[in-house]
């Protein structure tokens, strides 16, 4: 970590704090609204859906704002918005206040997620960019592990205390970044925002890559959908779901940086394809376990390991490749479009996987395997219209 530039080190710590604050609160929000506040499950779903839509739907806004206004200011603004949003969760009980809090926290994520990745891309020398994103994943995963544990302890007192602490974490992050992140002059853009977006959408290799990367996010989502179901089926114990998350987290913390360093000399598209293929192939094990039930527990372990290792192989290089499709001054816009395209496709694909799960768990596992393999092939589709700089 110490070998990276100061802004990158700050953003690594920032990612730990962001995930700690987020997972300290959000996993317990639905229970708070339904049990503590007596709201209907439908209304709780609306609040959570609005938060997700505010974030996913505005990634493009965050990306273009980073290019035009500067990544530093957008990151700081994002953390400030989330401070206010999580503060409202602590102070308000009315549905209107909860919706406002959801919108603000979603907009916050839309602002700082593309901006942070754009900042790391610009500040890190190209030979070490994937390693920076590997460390970024480790810090984020650590925060995602610490957050729920801390939240469960604070909930023994009160949900409002959890929300207040989460808001306080984002307030500290806002101040630290304002003091430490260096201010950089933002050069005047030679083209308009809409021209930059049109250039992204006209970049066929970039769109193919973004669509293929949707497989990464789709399969990651199965940590919350298919794999918990398979773990419960295999063990007959709902508590085994926690083991899925612990195994995935520990493997990532131990292996992410090592794997990225080991693969840094491989062609990037090939590396991403291998990672997506591993993620998909892991789901063949639980699909096969329907024919051999005695292997069900081992099959779930294989699927979790395949998902974790494949993600470690692919994800840092996915983030490294995104800026390679455009000029440096539009890095934020490219990250915004990337998240919009891949996130939308991942959302649709995850709905399909959920629908198929009702027909049979084995079929859902086969669909997940197919998603990984098809996306791995799509990453390697030769493109004649552009040269991929890092291939």
From TrEMBL:
It is a multi-pass membrane protein. Residues 7-384 form the Major facilitator superfamily (MFS) profile domain. GO terms for molecular function: transmembrane transporter activity. The keyword Cell membrane applies. It is found in: Cell membrane. GO terms for cellular component: plasma membrane. PANTHER family: MULTIDRUG RESISTANCE PROTEIN MDTH (PTHR23517:SF2), RESISTANCE PROTEIN MDTM, PUTATIVE-RELATED-RELATED (PTHR23517). This is Putative MFS family arabinose efflux permease.
